[in-house]
Amino acid sequence: MSDKRISDDMEQALNRQMNQEAQQAQAYLALGVWAESNNYGGIADFFYKHSEEERQHMFKFLEYINTRGGEAKIGAIAAPADNPSNLKECIEDVWQHELENSRKIYDLVDKAMAEKDWPTFNFLQWFVKEQIEEEALIDGLRDKFALASEDRVNNANFYSLDRDMQDASQEAELPREQKL
Ligand code: OFO
């Protein structure tokens, strides 16, 4: 392996975030199972796709750490949180989760800047942009949920919400749609 071009401290911080992305993939996977077993098939697809995206994020960190002469260290993944008790709680949990992830990315950006580690600063800009998109995506779903739940007359709006989530644009394909 070539000489290391990131600090030990940065290597550890990037490894933490890499494992955090793996943890997020696991959390979205668990939410997909929860949604599917509650007959929200569209929402389940949304979470399964998002789990794949988080896994791709994990790989971006892995490749970057190794490319800079560091070593990506695959850590343990904790069990996901308990299932939400309803769809509203589920969407709010996801929202808080993404906000927290944005804060972690910004902390890394701060660190890269403090260390004058411009390659890492540049690498992280992709994630800053990604979090803008992810926050907008989940915030949009919160709005749709609010609209759907205003109509208490029937469940038709929940059905539409489910379809909207299935069709929401995401970069990853469902694992079952990928060509092996
Ligand atoms: Fe939900 O985003 Fe990764 O970083």
Q: What does the model show?
A:
α1 runs antiparallel to α2 (41-67), α1 (8-37) runs antiparallel to α3 (87-114) and α3 (87-114) packs antiparallel against α4 (118-150). The mean pLDDT is 91. The chain has a single domain, classed as Up-down Bundle (Ferritin). It has five helices and no strands. It is elongated, with a radius of gyration of 18 Å. By secondary structure, it is mostly helical.
At the first level of CATH, the class is Mainly Alpha
Which sequence of SSEs, written as H and E, runs from N to C?
HHHHH
Distance between the termini: 30 Å
What average pLDDT do the residues reach?
91
Share in helix: over 70%
* Share of β-strand residues: under 5%
Q: How many extended strands?
A: 0
Radius of gyration: 18 Å
CATH architecture: Up-down Bundle
Report the CATH superfamily. Answer: Ferritin, core subunit, four-helix bundle
The DSSP helix count reads 5
Structural class: mainly alpha
Summarize the main sheet.
none
How many separate domains? Answer: 1
Stretches where pLDDT is under 50 for at least 5 consecutive residues are: none
Coarse shape: elongated
What is the fold's blueprint, element by element?
Blueprint: H1 8-37, H2 41-67, H3 87-114, H4 118-150, H5 156-167
The chain binds hydroxy diiron-OXO moiety.
